C-alpha cells in the first residue's frame, strides 16, 4: 500500500471534522442572524479567545497600514482541545476533548454600557441548555454556570464559565468583543475545582459537544446583539431567577468587606452585598472573588 502524505489527508480530515460538528448547518443558521459571520472548528488551539483577539489586532493593523476603513466580521471559533485555555483572573480552564465544549465568539459591539455583559451571556447559555421552568442550572456571579446541588458545600457544582475580553477598534465607540465559553459536557475530574464539577449529561443525558454547540451558538449571538441594544436591563429579571448567591452569606476579597449577605444584582449587574453593619455594597466584576457560605447567616 502506498503511504498517504499529510498534505493529502488534511483536507479529508478537515471535512470529517466539520461534518462531526455539523458546521455547514450551523453556519447557515448563524448567517441568517449575522450574514457575514465566519465559523471554524479546529482540532487543537492554544486559546480560542487569544486566537480571535490576535485576528482582530491583525485586521486593525492592516486597516491602519492601508488607510482603509476598518472591517471585522463576526467569527465563531470552536476547538476540540485547548492547550492554553484561560478562565477569569488568569486561572487555567481545564477541558478534555469530547468531554468539553470550548468556543469563542468575536464581534464588534457598541453598547451604551458594558456592565453586566457576562451575566447576560450566562442567562443566554442557561436558557439555551435548560428550560427555565426546571432551573437546576444556576448562575454564579459574575461569570459561572453551576448545577444546583444541596449536598455540595457551595450549594452547587461548577458546570461552565465565561471569559469576556475586548480590544479597541478604529471605528467610533465600537470594540471587538470576544466571548469565550467553556462547558463540561461529560463527567471529568478537575483536581483544583474546590466547588466540585458538574456536567451537562446530568440534566441532558444524550448531550454531546456538537449538540451543545448547536444550542448555544445562536443564543450567544442573539444575546450579544440584544445586550448592545438594551444592556443588562433586558435580562435582569431572568438572571434573578437563576441567581445562585442571592439570599446567602458570602465572603469577598474586596477591601473592607470580608463577609456579608448577597442581595442579588442591581440594574448594572453589580452584586449587592449587605455588610454585617448594615451597609449595602455594590461589587463590580473583576474586582472581587465571591465564595458562598451556604447554611450560614450573616
If you had to describe this structure to a student in words, what would you say it looks like?
Helix 2 (23-33) runs parallel beside helix 5 (209-230) and helix 4 packs across helix 5. By secondary structure, this protein is of the alpha+beta class. The model has no long low-confidence stretch (mean pLDDT 86). The chain has two domains: 6-244, BirA Bifunctional Protein, domain 2 (2-Layer Sandwich); 245-298, Roll (SH3 type barrels), CATH 2.30.30.100. It is 29% helix and 27% strand. It starts with 5 loop residues before the first helix and ends in a 6-residue tail after the last strand.
Contiguous runs where pLDDT drops below 50 for at least 5 residues: none
Number of domains: 2
Under CATH at level 1, the class of the largest domain stands as Alpha Beta
Could you say which structural class the secondary elements and strand pairing correspond to?
A: alpha+beta
Count every helix, treating DSSP H or I runs of 4 or more residues as helices.
6
Q: SSE string, helix = H, strand = E? A: HHEHEEHEEEEHHEEEEE
**CATH homologous superfamily descriptor of the largest domain:** Bira Bifunctional Protein, Domain 2
Mean pLDDT over all positions: 86
Q: What's the N-to-C terminus distance?
A: 73 Å
Largest sheet: spatial strand order: 1-2-3-7-6-5-4
Brief overview, please?
This protein is an alpha+beta fold and 298 residues long. It has 6 helices and 12 strands.
